[in-house]
Write a structure and sequence with these properties.
The chain has 368 residues and is an alpha/beta fold. It is 36% helix and 13% strand. α2 crosses α9 (328-338), α3 (128-148) runs parallel beside α6 and α8 (257-266) crosses α9 (328-338). The relative contact order is 0.18. Bound molecules: 2-acetamido-2-deoxy-beta-D-glucopyranose (5 copies).
Length: 368
């Protein structure tokens, strides 16, 4: 088909996190965005796919009655990025309710997902390979519908959007975090090449179809997890460089979210936060306000006492929302740093983005 240009952004994340992808174009102007990942960027896929509702206080800072399946009090990084590109929030692939529109793209990210294939014990069956298969089916189905007539045009991407679109990936954190339950640090480090091999296979499938047509460190974080994350991210960066060489028409960008997040947690007060590690919506009080038995929004009986994990009063000064996921305020900060282009390899100019970022900030302060 026409142009072979497409754009893959691989963000690297962690502390909890890992590999996401953003674009290399100087104006960040794309007709459509296709996103793959875990809860960091799930806009309702797992909730739709497994059939559950995330109840308040999830969503309370932005989406009012419901978080629409986002594991956050408000918007995710991907929402802020879409906003900065003047595009609507991405609909989840599996969400069929309310006339979802996929013209500007589709979000395949599902909370709890891993790069490695899911097992019977996995929280989420929609691992990266499944998400890629869903994308391949999505594209085939879209082309069928477009061939069938004009009436679907306003609901699905045009054919050339697959070539010209932005492909974002933010996944891997669950592969590492999950592995620590049963493996030593050395074993986890040894498993990273396998995880990335699986990731590479998935990316190449996207590329093909896009183109054809517990020790705590000084931050209070578990240092072994962060060491694994850093190793993963180094190898991921090497993979992005390799893919860049193999697919010269694709712009593969690696975004260093680990550095953005560790800077946020270390230097939180510079960015307007007061609580770098204490959980906003949890139970147990300081220092962590986190009890895995009483998760955000739930009510449990502990020793005969009924307790509820409620939201803090001012989530905008907390980094952690529920002990696993970041608050909307932290997501907004991370998105703003991604948009500077300084954490991307190769880097892109953030010039065009500053005005839209200001708009994002305004929306945020109004809604909180
Ligand atoms: C890919 O990057 C090159 C060089 O930075 C740029 O000229 C081109 O427009 C980019 N392609 C897309 C589709 O963004
Ligand atoms: C949430 O509700 C308020 C007040 O009703 C409204 O102004 C705001 O637009 C709503 N936000 C969303 C995202 O629906
Ligand atoms: C915190 O800020 C200082 C001063 O700007 C900087 O040198 C340091 O690298 C930051 N910490 C992290 C973890 O980025
Ligand atoms: C319940 O009892 C255990 C053991 O006596 C104690 O450690 C824990 O703090 C108690 N929890 C609550 C919520 O009172
Ligand atoms: C929130 O503020 C109210 C009223 O100021 C106070 O009673 C309550 O304890 C606060 N809740 C939390 C979790 O800080």
């Amino acid at each position: 088909m026409a142009s072979k240009n497409y754009n893959v952004v691989a963000f690297k994340v962690v502390l909890h996190c890992i590999c996401l992808a953003v674009a290399n174009s100087s104006d960040l102007s794309y007709p459509a965005v296709f996103n793959f990942g875990d809860s960091n960027s799930d806009t309702g896929d797992l909730a739709a796919g497994l059939g559950f509702q995330l109840i308040q206080p999830y969503g309370q800072s932005y989406f009012n009655a419901s978080s629409t399946g986002r594991f956050c009090n408000g918007r995710l990084i991907v929402d802020f990025l879409m906003d900065a590109m003047h595009m609507p929030f991405l609909n989840a692939y599996m969400d069929s309710i309310g006339l979802p529109n996929f013209q500007k793209g589709c979000n395949f990210a599902a909370a709890g997902s891993t790069i490695l294939a899911a097992t019977a014990a996995s929280l989420c069956p929609f691992s990266f390979g499944i998400q890629v298969s869903q994308f391949i089916r999505f594209k085939a189905r879209v082309l069928e519908l477009l061939a069938a007539g004009q009436k679907y045009k306003k609901y699905v991407p045009a054919e050339d959007y697959f070539n010209k679109g932005l492909y974002m990936l933010d996944i891997g954190q669950n592969d590492l975090a999950g592995a620590f339950y049963s493996k030593t640090l050395d074993q986890v480090l040894a498993s990273i090449p396998n995880i990335l091999l699986e990731f590479e296979t998935g990316i190449k499938n996207i590329a093909k179809f896009g183109v054809d047509s517990s020790k705590l460190d000084e931050q209070g974080c578990v240092s072994s997890h962060n060491q694994a994350a850093k190793t993963f991210n180094l190898q991921l960066q090497a993979l992005c460089t390799k893919l860049h060489g193999q697919y010269p028409d694709a712009n593969v960008t690696y975004v260093d979210i680990f550095t953005i997040k560790s800077n946020l947690i270390s230097n939180y007060s510079n960015y307007g936060f007061q609580q770098p590690i204490m959980v906003c919506c949890g139970y147990g009080g300081p220092p962590l306000n986190y009890d895995e038995r009483v998760t955000c929004g739930s009510t449990k009986s502990l020793n005969g006492t009924i307790v509820t994990a409620k939201s803090c009063n001012d989530s905008s000064v907390y980094v952690s929302w529920d002990g696993t996921h970041y608050t909307e305020a932290a997501n907004q900060y991370v998105a703003s740093q991604i948009l500077t282009g300084k954490y991307s390899y190769p880097s892109f100019s953030g010039k065009m983005l500053i005005p839209s970022l200001a708009q994002v900030t305004t929306t945020e302060s109004q809604s909180m």
